[in-house]
Amino acid sequence: MAELDVAELASDLIRIDTTNRGGGDCRERPAAEYVAERLGEVGIEVRLLESAPGRTNAVARIAGSDPDRPGLLVHGHLDVVPADPAGWSVHPFSGEIRDGVLWGRGAVDMKNMVAMTLSVVRSWAQAGHRPRRDIVLAFTADEEDTGRYGAGYLADGHPDLFEGCTEGISESGGYTFHVDGRRLYPIGAAERGTAWLTLTARGTAGHGSKPNRDNAVAALADAVHRIAGYQWPVRLTPTVRAALTRMGEALGVEVDTDRPDLDVDAVLEQLGPARRLVESTVRNSANPTMLSAGYKVNVIPGEATGQVDGRVLPGTEEEFEKTITELVGPRVDWQYYHREVPLSAPVDSPTFASMSAALRAEDPDAHVVPYCMGGGTDAKQFSRLGILGYGFAPLKLPPEFDYGALFHGVDERVPVSALEFGVRVLDRFLTDVA
Ligand SMILES: [Zn+2]
Questions:
Q1: Which of 161, 287, 369, 394 is the most exposed place for a label (fewest CB within 10 A)?
Q2: Which positions ≥6 away from 382 have C-beta within 8 Å?
Q3: Are residues 85 and 216 in the same domain?
């Protein structure tokens, strides 16, 4: 059997083009087969589960040494967002390794984590090592669209595969975030919910030259204007409170989230670049993104519609709905076009402590902080099985790497040394987690 290091595994995966164009247009099957082959050759049996032709998921279970402990889910998506080669320095599906850096779509989101996971469990299998907890590996389709063909399909159609799992880890956490010479490692412990809305205004259709006080376009525009101008109130969830406190400690900024007169915007200012980790999660948000009405300039249409991208913090769903109803007003109706739950996992859990310890073991100067993700991941789908989700795909990045900009960005890339660090951290965590 060929020895493959993590960079080769990640490069191979990047070369398998799994672009997800949305609406069902993607083919993950070759990537799922690749994963099954790499695990199969070390004796780990993989089930391939196809939700539609080509939309393939790969799931395996590694039996732990202590059957009394709950299982741990490690999941990673196999699809990637589109990349136009025209804007790139190297071809986005070349998987080229140049000067110690691996380039390509999926290098950080998230074929890196898939490769790191494969690398750890392959080395375990070869050494005859077993973890304490059962570890379920799930490599999924369709995360970059709705998850319907991937994690959603697995959670709804094959819950038995995840029997006993209480917690899961996946993307968007455990990476280096540089602030003034300090290295923060944010671990995802919550996610805002998705609330995509359709607004519909109905009015009286008529000639564009005639007076019309019941114009659907104007009513929709008023509603959209009110939503866009609304300043959502600060709502500090337990995860965001913990994030602000621990970032403050790491950066020498005094943050007392219990103060009744706490000025969160002033605190964000003091956190400097670290504010980017929290600013989108101290409030709900609702951004108008699409408008549609009319077919001719001299005809007033009877209907106008708009769409709004809303994001909702855990525990604020009711308030969000009430506020939207007030903002759109009586002339406009609204409904959910797509909705996903917010998530929250404890930051004082033994599992969170194990992740922190694994990071500090490999980077003694790591300041590990929890954070709430502004958007969502497959963890939302697996939460339906009662699995708590953490964002933990460890990478040690040099200061010039802007991780946030590389996500879905042009010239997505990752240093090979970052992947090797990730393998060491994951190995420790998955071995030690109790
Ligand atoms: Zn992703």
A1: 287
A2: 73, 75, 138, 151, 154, 155, 162, 168, 389
A3: no
What is the DSSP secondary structure assignment for residue 344, as one 8-state letter? E
Distance 85 CA to ligand 1 centre (A): 20
Phi-psi region of 45 (alpha: psi -120 to 50; beta: other; left: phi over 0): beta
User: Are the CB atoms for 37 and 60 separated by under 8 Å?
Assistant: no
Tell me the CA–centroid distance for residue 77 and ligand 1, in Å: 7
Q: How close are the terminal C-alpha atoms of the chain, in Å?
A: 32
Max Cα distance, the chain (Å): 82
The CATH number of the domain holding residue 318 is 3.30.70.360
Phi-psi region of 408 (alpha: psi -120 to 50; beta: other; left: phi over 0): left
Q: What is the pLDDT of residues 348-389, one digit of tens each?
A: 999 999 999 999 999 999 999 999 998 889 999 999 999 999
* Cα 31 to ligand 1 centre (Å): 15
Range of the domain at 134: 2-172+377-432
Q: What is the pTM of this model?
A: 0.92
Under the banding of pLDDT at 50, 70 and 90, the label for residue 3 is low
Final residue belonging to a domain, choices 317, 340, 363:
340
Residue found by looking up tokens 């077993």 in the block: 130
3-state helix, strand, coil in the chain (%, to 5): 35, 25, 40
Query: For 217-269, what is each residue's pLDDT tens digit?
Result: 999 999 999 999 999 999 999 999 999 999 999 999 999 999 988 999 999 99
Residues with CB under 5 A from ligand 1 (ion): 109-110, 171
Domain count, the chain: 2
Measured in Å, residue 378 CA sits from the centre of ligand 1 at 8
Q: Report the pLDDT value the prediction gives residue 76, as an integer from 0 to 100.
A: 98
Q: What is the mean pLDDT of residues 415-431?
A: 97
Determine contact, residues 377/337, Cβ cutoff 8 Å. no
On average, the pLDDT of the chain sits at: 96
Residue ending a domain, choose from 285, 320, 340:
340
| Residue 91 near residue 410, CB atoms below 8 Å | no
